[in-house]
Write a structure and sequence with these properties.
With 130 residues, the chain is mostly beta strands. The protein contains no helices and eight strands. 16% of the residues are buried.
């Protein structure tokens, strides 16, 4: 099983709500994040990801549960993921984990998990791929 950690950085094409509108946090709202950069521990660009989700539950203004699918375009291929995550869990001791459901090239027929966690104000994704 391959294990590696990538760090999220803002990309050039991040789609966010207009400044005067509230963040997507009502049930049924759509959330789209595009071209978010992923760097390795040496701060080298390792790829990008696209995240498409729908809010399915709201606990508080910034505490939502989202059903999503994401495409992680890495240097050696694509890793596809999907799951249901609570954003507040990124700050928990264990983070939040979701499924790897396939991929291309080196990651063809990939499966495993990704764990997202905020560490020192950075969002880190640990991929466990088999």
């Amino acid at each position: 099983m391959a294990k590696f950690t990538l760090i999220e950085r803002p990309g050039t094409g991040v789609k966010e709500p207009p400044r005067n509108s509230p963040p997507p946090n009502n049930v049924g709202d759509q959330l789209l994040i595009i071209d978010r950069q992923l760097e390795d521990n040496g701060r080298n660009l390792a790829g990008t990801f696209v995240f498409r989700g729908t809010v399915v539950q709201r606990f508080a203004q910034n505490d939502i549960v989202v059903a999503f699918e994401a495409t992680n375009k890495l240097n050696k291929g694509v890793i596809n993921t999907q799951g249901v995550i609570r954003f507040a869990d990124f700050r928990s001791a264990n983070g939040v984990t979701w499924a790897i459901v396939g991929g291309t090239r080196k990651y063809k027929k990939a499966h495993g998990t990704v764990t997202g966690k905020i560490v020192d104000s950075e969002t880190q994704f640990t991929f466990r791929v088999s």
